[in-house]
Amino acid sequence: MAGRRRLPAALFGLSLAMCVTVQAGMTAQASGRNFLDDLNGGVAAILDPGNNNTTEIINATARELNLTLYSEEEEESSLVMANVQNALNVRSEPREDAKKVGLLYKDCGGVILDRQNGWTLLQSGNIVGWASDEYLLFGEEAQALANEVGRMIATINTETLRVRAEASVESSIYGLLPKGEIVEVVNTDNEEWICIDYEGDDGYVSAEYVTLDFQIDSGETIEEIKAREAAEREAKRHVNYGEYTTDADSTKLLAALIQCEAGGEPYEGQLAVASVVMNRVRSGAYPNSIHGVIYASGQFTPAMSGKVNSVYESGRYSSSCLQAAQEAIAGTSNVGDMTHFRRNDGRDGLVIGHHVFY
Question: Which of 70, 81, 191, 226 is the most buried (most CB within 10 A)?
Answer without folding.
Answer: 81
